[in-house]
Amino acid sequence: MDEKDRENIALFRFSLIAPLLQGQVASRKAYLESITARPHEVPYYGLCDYSPQTIASWLRDYRREGFEGLKPKRRSDRGRPRALSPELQEQLLALRQEERSCPASVFYEQLVAKGVILPDAVSYATIYRFLKSRGLLGREMRREPERKRFAYDTVNTLWQGDVAAGPYLRVGNKKVATFLFAFIDDCSRLVTFAQFFTSEKFESLKVVFKEAILRRGIPQMVYVDNGKIYRSEQLQLACAALGIALINTKPYDPQSKGKIERFFLTVRQRFLPLVKDEHLKSLDNLNRSFWQWLEEDYHRQVHSALGMSPLDKFMSQFSQVKMVSDPAVLEPLFFKREERRVHHDATISINKRLFEVPPQFIGNRVEVRFDPEKLERVLIFVAGKEVAVAQPVALSVNARAKRESKLSFASLQGGGQN
């Protein structure tokens, strides 16, 4: 089991304890009994059954050690193979969307006929349980979900997040598309942060989410759609480290995020008509005008459902907001995580750039965490702990570097086995 497997298992465990951690269940006993009444498809291990005591022990581990406490202890065995790999699960979900009304038994036969699965390796019961757990059985897929209005009583209990198409910039003779990323607090309807970008990539989402947390505190839950950037490992790990339950909507169900969709409608109705040609000459101009409208208009208008403005509602409960104690700690939580083998000259390569690490790591595999957009900080982790900061290679200095014993690397692993 490598570090990536341990992180994926920890993320799965966090998803089960998050409602308990955030106090979102009426009865702890009833919740534990309900989630242990069925088997779970677990990264690395496959289909597993758990007892309420096991789930409760994960909660204790998280409260004592944080996200690291949810990772399995290092073992010498290689574990059990999963019946359905992550790649196969993605393929099954895509194929199921093409055959939405097909009975599960017929769908299984089609998978075998197409060579997607082998009947000796994956049984019909496994496929049936997988489809049922995702709400993808025929009758479930045709049923319209029941929708009830809801709102949390406390600010920062739940944020809704999404991205919407913005106006086109006019740069020279070109038209450049923009995208508005935003998060909104469910209780107060205050927009914790929003910004226009010319890219829909994860970097845009990261900027907005980090700024929202720095400005408005740490939410208990974040509700986003099923898009690739919202399912990214970087976002999942960052939320888990902060104690945030990340909840993804079901595919093809944008209506479930009604408050953020309503905000985007307000932007189209009340902000975009105010946009002038000079605002569209650059992204900075567009964002400056948007932020001014957001703070002076949207946040200060009395909301009909609240009886006060979103800003007043949020500030009335500000004493309950949990702020980030050290902003410098927030940035590394969103770093990309990869493994590298340290070369004989004590260097590693990241995005075609060489970085130097302490020589005791020569010949060993280490985890590196970095921002792929900037590469300003490259952190070295061993056994989930930061042990060094990699430096850009200075060839003249590297040529004179003394080589040290590798014993210190073993001690950093705590005597565990890979």
UniProtKB/TrEMBL annotation:
Domain Integrase catalytic stretches: 141-318
InterPro entries: Homeodomain-like_sf, Integrase_cat-core, RNaseH-like_sf, RNaseH_sf, Transposase-like_Mu_C
An annotated Gene Ontology molecular function: nucleic acid binding
Domain of life per record: Bacteria
Organism: Neomoorella glycerini
Protein name, entry field: IS481 family transposase ISBst1
Gene Ontology biological-process entries: DNA integration
Any matching Pfam family: HTH_32
Gene3D superfamilies cross-referenced by the UniProt entry: Ribonuclease H-like superfamily/Ribonuclease H
Signal peptide span: none
